[in-house]
Amino acid sequence: MTVTFFAPCPRGLEALLQDELEQLGAQAVVVTPGGVEFSGPFELCYKANLESRIASRVLWRVFHGRYRSEQDLYRAAYDLPWPDWFSPRDTIKVKVSAQQCPLRSLEFVTLKIKDAVCDRFRASTGSRPSVDTRKPDLRIDAFLERTGVTLYLDTSGEALFKRGWRRVSAEAPLRENLAAGILKLSGWNGEQALLDPMCGGGTILLEAALMALNISPGVGRSFAFEKLSHFDERAWRALCRASRSRERPRIPLAIHGSDLDGVALKAARANLETAGLSEVVKLEQADVLEITPPADEGVLITNPPYGVRAGDPVELSAFYPRLGDRLKRHFAGWRAYLFTSDLRLPTLIRLAATRRTPLFNGALECRLFEFKMVRGGMRRSPIT
User: Fold this and answer.
1) Region 289-308: what's the mean pLDDT?
2) Are 74 and 56 in contact (CB under 8 A)?
3) Where does 2-154 sit in CATH, by number?
4) Which of 59, 240, 267, 279 is placed for a possible disulfide with 152 were both Cys, Cβ 3.0 to 4.6 Å?
5) Was domain 176-215+248-372 assigned CATH 3.10.50.40?
6) How far apart are CA 79 and CA 63, in angstroms?
7) For the segment 144-161, what is each residue's pLDDT rounded down to a tens digit?
8) From the CA atom positions of the chain, what is the Rg in Å?
């Protein structure tokens, strides 16, 4: 039976997610701002949760229709066969989001949908699921537009960017699926040298190693679909075995990371060790303004820990021109990708960006700036 899913993702990565899902066998793919709708057999959500590097979640659409009042929403939710899908012993959480919704209170809508689910269980089974707003077994998502409502069961559980490797967080870390998207946007192919000279907790390095070794981002973690009554454990285990059989040997790769902050570097080492990748990635403590390239050519990708995190305009004005000078003088033959929320970066760094890709880190608007480093022709005149 064909069912419909929706996979949200960081805004700006929808086209990458579309390609990824189509490669996994998704059909009837429709790209929308912030995600991708697609269809296929139910087991497709197993594969998407296991293999997708870009999706934030995989939501199973269980209802779509029109409404005018809170009572319409209650009736729509009550009429669904929730007891066929999961047990009253499972805990639930209802989350409501809306766009141009005419109803006054989303909190009241959330309560009505929760009541409908629990009332349906009580009528069918004599018992009802409990609510757990922190770590529910299953999450029910409702999305309201002006006249339409869509109800989803979340098949992922924990967000998919929570790979399970991060044991220590550096300040203001990138989400893993955004880091994976940045790597794909850079065109890095896993064979070229890669350097993150301000690596923080190592998220970009971790995602690069997983991609290069063909390790599925969801391997080794659990998912909400395992709680569903019709979960096919045999099919799931077969997918996991097939995924592990495609992994490449964990040998040292040309993936390099550095950071001036010893605490951040310690976090990166701990996270790589948790993922079993400490021998794959090379780390060193170094100042980005003094670092030399580890190869004649390659790809530099970094999220400078300035701007939002430091926020000192004087410090920015002093740092970025020196960074641009270092790149120009020492990284000829490299492509540099700087991800930042500071849209003034090309002006401050005094290099001509060859591409500017709008992306969002949560609600924060950012840019991925590409600089192709060649000798001569990149330097901008200082702003006076």
Assistant:
1) 87
2) no
3) 3.30.2130.30
4) 59
5) no
6) 10
7) 999 999 999 999 999 999
8) 23
Around Cβ 308, how many Cβ atoms within 10 Å? 13
CB 101 within 8 A of CB 142: no
Instruction: State residue 381's pLDDT score.
Output: 47
H helix intervals, the chain: 14-23, 44-51, 70-78, 82-85, 106-125, 176-186, 203-212, 233-245, 262-274, 313-330, 345-349
Straight-line distance from the first to the last Cα atom of the chain, in angstroms, rounded to the nearest whole number: 65
Can you tell me the distance from the alpha carbon of 233 to that of 240, in angstroms, rounded to the nearest whole number? Answer: 11
Q: At what angle do helices 70-78 and 106-125 cross, to 10 degrees?
A: 30
Amino acid at 35: G
Q: How high is the pLDDT of residue 380? A: 52
Question: Are 345 and 374 within 8 A, CB to CB?
Answer: no
pLDDT at 334: 98
Instruction: Tell whether the model's pLDDT for residue 308 goes beyond 60.
Output: no
pLDDT given for residue 172 in this prediction:
57
DSSP string, 190-259: SSSEEEETT-TT-HHHHHHHHHHTT--TTTT---GGGGSTT--HHHHHHHHHHHHHTPPP----SEEEEE
